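Ops channel
N.P.: pipeline sanity check, posting one input/output pair.
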């Protein structure tokens, strides 16, 4: 407790009072007890959502799968369910899963199962962070600052957003470990002499610093803050001539921080820490800072003048300019893109809400007590000004504890920068903002303590302060508990119709199957709690495929066709609710420009009463009449009456009329595959187009607005028979039809989706029940361009049977990888196993459905987009055309015999040189280098064999 003049006078007079002693005891024991109560309250609020059947946050589904792997493997190596057919090499913040696995091992003693421990972890992290921010606030400022920071964190929505049960990301554990690491660092720095306390705090700092590095890829922020803290501290101490303090700081901080970086680097080779690239940069920066510090300490010996502040500032400025030029020479233009991954730096990131720039509305939403009052944020700004003033005062007094204010200023400014960079950093900024808000209130309490008034008067002022600020945590806690309760009522992020659809998929598909939808739902598909099937793209993997799925959804006909069989796709899932995401989908798929993406909604739901039919000059016309305006769409398709009605096109939309409502679809996407698959609309803009689509995508299940389709790369959509000298269609996908008995001359129209038919054989089969009664080869050596399909004419005798099938036999991919891939003993990315010109011993595990003889290839492919109007993604006229091209297949080994289930295969493999470069140069020549953007290259092990495709059965 800070001594006041009143106390000094009383001490001189020998006066005794019990109040100051009780007050000291209250601060020493009462405040920590209150903090424990706040931590418990924070835990309860965050644990309200633990009743979820699944999780609210989609990414948490993936983290749960990796955590389950870590329980048995400690550091995950491979995940089979993302990016089929190869799966993914586990990377990123793998330490998070190891830490959670350790937590599970501990709490399992108390009866928690894997899922229960996983749900317990985030609120536990939240509670421990509340305690941590108290300790840090107390160390950096005062008991009161720590208490109020803890109180604000207890109810803060910004902090709650990543620490409630069912949201298990790495940001929360990072903040927890970082706050404890800084607290321990300050304890270590405060001890001037080497003693047990200094040694223990230094050792535990090392431990917590490695843990925060391991918990999140964004832990680069923590490494940066500490490096910046060191840089500012040494510069300030040097400029103000505090050489003894500088020597002491360098002696204590530099070896400890350097050892922390080196330990993180060493553990990065195990996968436990996932920021090796940044640790290398941090070490380089730390070495440069060490060199600068050496000049500061010993430069006078070389003739540098340190006689006054101007000379010292000049030395620092000169070295800083030299360092900036050196870094620019090292990084080039990438120096200005160092944090570019957190910005909308490409079309994909432009569509991600979390990467949008933070505005004031966002700040007031997250940093308020209840409504958008922004009280917490405003208090943090006040706290920042107080800390800055306090730091200046310490410099004047030559106070050696000024490094505490340096850290607070550094942490706050760094957090604000991060916050303004993107919405996704609202939580991460909460550590500094809540801490500085606590400092602002804590300063008011210190002011009262330091008053010259009587003890009674000061006590009265303290009570008034408590009454002034106490409503904030009380109201905030009530509000946040209400928010958490509403979250809990949702029972998780997966709607019932999705749960039912994914459970159906789990029960009715092969465990090796894959399913794809828009990327937001990839983690649901992969989850062991739901369908547990592979997904072509999800929230964190196969970003390149998002463009391809978007292209398919937002176009129709040949323009939409992509080689989905290259992904081993078996099922496509389409959700009607994606009308609300279709601006992003249409933009990434190249159906609309950036200007249209920003300004034109792709869909609008219209109440039935707004749809009006009229007869004008004997013609039926349709208006959208809102009461104020009346518009005619480009076209009206009334699905309740089976009518197609032309319109004037007052608005660039097509109106679909359903029972009880209408749907306006933007003209460019009105006939897209998404519209027809999501709403099961048989309308064809081009003749037979819908028949072809529903042949390749066969509806197999529907629940509410979620439709599941079985994908068939080759499918018959129309059959004609030759009768009386003419061809007559008797079968179509949507119309149905039965094969005529006897001798027939037929014409089969096969839709080859995204893939050519090459040297194929067509076979006819007839069954009585399950007994095959006839099998006949109808044609061989069939070739067909999937963009210009022609029918196949066959003659056959059709027996009387219960079931018939036409089968197309041609080379196709089979099997999926089901374990890590190694090249020369090194675990490699399974979707890019060898670079051009490389070779090595390839070892992998592949899973197959049945016994086969297969050939192993390395398939080189590239995803890219063409930007006809230039690469500037912020121009309204910008749009893109996605492409997925298979460049070549490189034979590794033929005639490999495999059995059902997992097969371990070891072969010698090599990748020719220049495969990608030569192909990309051709793209540049064709489209212009200024219009081609390469998204991703792949070199994937794939297995090819003669494969039977059932193209029709009935």
């Amino acid at each position: 407790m800070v001594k006041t003049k009143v106390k000094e006078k009383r001490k001189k007079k020998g006066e005794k009072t019990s109040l100051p002693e009780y007050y000291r005891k209250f601060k020493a024991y009462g405040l920590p007890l209150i903090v424990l109560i706040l931590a418990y309250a924070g835990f309860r609020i965050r644990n309200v959502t633990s009743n979820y059947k699944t999780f609210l946050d989609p990414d948490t589904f993936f983290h749960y799968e990796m955590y389950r792997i870590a329980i048995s493997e400690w550091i995950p190596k491979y995940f089979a369910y993302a990016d089929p057919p190869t799966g993914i090499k586990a990377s990123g913040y793998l330490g998070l899963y190891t830490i959670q696995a350790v937590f599970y091992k501990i709490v399992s003693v108390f009866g928690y199962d894997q899922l229960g421990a996983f749900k317990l972890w985030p609120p536990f992290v939240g509670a421990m962070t509340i305690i941590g921010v108290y300790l840090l606030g107390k160390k950096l400022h005062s008991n009161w600052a720590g208490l109020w920071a803890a109180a604000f964190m207890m109810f803060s929505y910004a902090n709650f957003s990543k620490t409630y049960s069912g949201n298990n990301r790495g940001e929360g554990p990072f903040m927890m470990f970082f706050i404890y690491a800084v607290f321990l660092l300050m304890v270590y720095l405060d001890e001037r002499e080497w003693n047990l306390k200094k040694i223990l705090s230094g050792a535990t700092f090392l431990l917590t610093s490695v843990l925060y590095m391991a918990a999140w890829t964004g832990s680069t922020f923590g490494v940066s803050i500490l490096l910046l803290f060191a840089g500012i501290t040494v510069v300030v101490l040097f400029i103000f001539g505090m050489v003894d303090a500088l020597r002491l700081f360098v002696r204590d901080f530099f070896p400890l921080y350097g050892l922390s970086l080196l330990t993180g680097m060493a553990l990065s080779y195990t996968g436990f820490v996932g920021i090796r690239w940044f640790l290398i940069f941090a070490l380089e920066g730390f070495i440069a800072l060490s060199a600068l510090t050496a000049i500061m300490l010993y430069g006078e010996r070389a003739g540098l003048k340190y006689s006054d502040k101007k000379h010292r500032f000049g030395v620092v400025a000169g070295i800083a300019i030299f360092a900036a030029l050196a870094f620019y020479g090292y990084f080039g233009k990438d120096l200005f893109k160092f944090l570019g991954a957190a910005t909308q730096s490409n079309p994909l990131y432009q569509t991600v809400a979390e990467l949008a720039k933070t505005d004031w509305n966002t700040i007031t939403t997250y940093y308020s007590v209840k409504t958008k009052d922004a009280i917490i944020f405003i208090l943090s700004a006040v706290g920042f000004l107080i800390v800055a003033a306090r730091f200046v005062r310490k410099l004047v007094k030559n106070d050696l504890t000024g490094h505490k204010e340096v850290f607070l200023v550094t942490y706050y400014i760094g957090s604000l920068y991060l916050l303004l960079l993107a919405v996704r950093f609202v939580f991460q900024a909460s550590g500094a903002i809540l801490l500085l808000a606590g400092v602002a209130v804590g300063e008011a309490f210190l002011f009262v303590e330091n008053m010259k008034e009587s003890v009674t008067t000061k006590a009265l002022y303290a009570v008034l302060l408590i009454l002034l600020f106490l409503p904030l945590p009380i109201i905030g806690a009530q509000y946040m508990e209400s928010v958490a309760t509403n979250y809990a009522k949702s029972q998780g992020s997966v709607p019932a119709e999705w749960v039912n659809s994914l459970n159906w998929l789990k029960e009715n598909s092969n465990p090796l199957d894959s399913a794809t939808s828009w990327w937001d739902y990839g983690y649901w598909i992969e989850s062991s709690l739901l369908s547990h099937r592979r997904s072509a793209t999800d929230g964190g993997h196969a970003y390149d495929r998002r463009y391809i799925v978007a292209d398919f959804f937002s176009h129709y006909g040949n323009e939409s066709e992509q080689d989905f069989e290259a992904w081993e796709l078996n099922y496509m899932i389409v959700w009607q609710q994606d009308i609300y995401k279709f601006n992003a989908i249409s933009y990434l798929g190249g159906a609309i420009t950036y200007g249209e993406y920003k300004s034109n909604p792709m869909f609008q739901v219209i109440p039935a009463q707004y749809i009006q039919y009229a007869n004008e000059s004997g013609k039926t016309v349709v208006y959208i009449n809102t009461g104020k305006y009346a518009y005619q769409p480009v076209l009206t398709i009334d699905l309740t009456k089976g009518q197609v009605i032309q319109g004037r096109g007052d608005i660039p939309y097509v109106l679909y009329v359903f029972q009880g409502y209408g749907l306006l679809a933007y003209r460019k996407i009105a006939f897209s595959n998404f519209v027809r698959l999501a709403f099961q609309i048989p309308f064809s803009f081009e003749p037979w187009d819908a028949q072809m689509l529903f042949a390749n995508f066969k509806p197999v299940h529907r629940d509410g607005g979620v439709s599941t389709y079985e994908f068939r790369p080759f499918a018959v959509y129309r059959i004609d028979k030759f009768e009386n000298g003419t061809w007559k269609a008797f079968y179509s996908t949507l119309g149905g039809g039965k094969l005529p008995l006897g001798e027939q001359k037929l014409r089969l129209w096969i839709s080859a989706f995204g893939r050519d038919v090459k040297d194929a054989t067509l076979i006819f089969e007839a069954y009585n029940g399950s007994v095959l009664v006839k099998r006949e080869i109808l044609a061989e050596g069939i070739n067909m361009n999937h963009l210009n399909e022609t029918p196949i004419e066959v003659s056959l005798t059709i027996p009387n049977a219960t079931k018939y099938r036409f089968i197309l036999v041609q080379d196709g991919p089979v099997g999926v990888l089901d374990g890590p891939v190694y090249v020369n003993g090194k675990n490699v990315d399974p979707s890019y196993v060898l670079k051009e010109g490389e070779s090595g011993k390839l070892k992998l595990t592949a899973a197959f459905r049945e016994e086969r003889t297969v050939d192993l290839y390395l398939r080189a492919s590239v995803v890219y987009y063409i930007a006809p109007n230039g690469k500037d993604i912020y121009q309204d006229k910008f749009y893109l055309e996605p492409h997925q091209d298979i460049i070549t297949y490189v034979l590794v080994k033929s005639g490999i015999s495999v059995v059902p289930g997992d097969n371990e295969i070891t072969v010698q493999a090599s990748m020719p040189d220049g495969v990608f470069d030569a192909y990309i140069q051709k793209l540049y020549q064709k489209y212009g280098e200024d219009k081609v953007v390469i998204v991703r290259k792949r070199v994937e092990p794939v297995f090819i064999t003669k494969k039977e495709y059932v193209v029709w059965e009935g």
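N.P.: looks fine end to end. DSSP finds 28 helices and 30 strands in the chain.
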